[in-house]
Amino acid sequence: MQTFDIVVFGATSFVGKIMVRYMMDTFPKHDKAPTWAIAGRSEAKLKALKDELGEHGQSLSTIVADAANEEQLNAMCEQAKVIVSTVGPYALYGEPLIKACVTSGTDYCDLTGEPQWIARMLKRYEKVAQISGSRIVHCCGFDSIPSDLGVWYTQKQANATFNETCQKIFMRVKAMKGAASGGTVASMMNLVKEATTDKDLRRMLANPYALCPQEHPFKARQENLKTARFDENTQSWIAPFIMAAINTRVVHRSNAMQGNAYGDDFIYDEAMMMGKGAGGGMRAGLLSTGLGGFMVAAALPPTRWLMEKTFLPKPGEGPSEKEQLEGFYDLRFFAQTASGNKIQCKVTGDRDPGYGSTGKMLAESAACLALDIDKNERKGGFWTPASAMAEPLLVRLEKYAGLSFSVVE
Q1: Residue 114, exposed/middle/buried by CB under 10 A (0-12, 13-18, 19+)?
Q2: CA distances in angstroms from 10 to 19, 49, 72, 85, 263, listed in the order given
Q3: Bridge-partner residues for 40, per DSSP?
Q4: What mean pLDDT is reported for the chain?
Q5: Where does 133-243 have alpha helices with state H?
Q6: From the CB of residue 102, how many other CB atoms can be counted at a distance below 10 Å?
Q7: Which residues, including other chains, have CB under 8 Å from residue 138's CB and lie 6 or more apart?
Q8: SS3 at position 62
Q9: Which residue, among 223, 232, 236, 116, has the nearest Cα to 174 in the 3D structure?
């Protein structure tokens, strides 16, 4: 029997605490406030979190459930419309909860950025979810909501202005301030570790359509930026954007899940703007070299071990509250239709992207899925943020979560 609209699984994790505080402060101001509870494997840590939240926190219901305990996960799913999970790396800990949700018909969202894990879950559980009615929506944080909804919004504006969608969209990170947490780093290191020993996984990760349904017709060659170069679209030097590997895959899946609404030959890529002139070129070169060196070091067991033991943040560590408040991002979408019409849109966020803003996006995604998206409107299966929630989620993000979507005149 469903008791709560939302259950936050992993509420005592770093991003879980950010999200819970946001829900405590913001949900009472919503037009319709969701009912919710917190869950995790440690009753003592759940109680400590309630104490941290003060007087209002004492009224929160708690559910004890371990990521590896099938019986506890099933019992938790029976009590919720939507389970929102922050328990990562998902490739290590996430599958039992996906199985419990798709078996029970419970909806689910998370903030994973692990394409290899999403591909495995699609293969193993998509048909089960379609039968049970469970809606699974991965990537409901900075990867990949700003990219996914940014493309959706840009296509909508182009269609309204030119009566045609965009054949090409290039997302460029114009500005961003934020720090990575230990959880993000752990997920990235696990992905590199898997890829070094699995040739099929490396092949899958190189496929821009890796998360699209097998019957998709997409064949357009997609750029995978690996080095610095001068970008004619932005008149700026650009460098690789580390989140592009997941964001581009999610955007192409959104296209497929919306009936190829962006076209069969839609082209999309992402990069970071580093500025003009010699200074921009130098910054782009340094960033490209640094990222390349990091990935090589992460692929080698001795240097990976040394990095994890010395300077990389540990799971549970992340930016301070001050750093979260001072963070922000400004993403630009340079778009062109097949007939040559051009439009530029932007998405901005008012907190550090990976945690302050991600916590808010994840909470609003869960609320949107629970309250705004009817089961008859979006049936069971594996969706993306744009294909599952689009307009209702965008409205929520602008109204409550500090994001803005606009056309650049």
Answers
A1: buried
A2: 10, 11, 14, 6, 38
A3: 64
A4: 92
A5: 145-162, 182-197, 199-205
A6: 28
A7: 109, 110, 112, 118, 121, 250, 382, 384
A8: strand
A9: 236
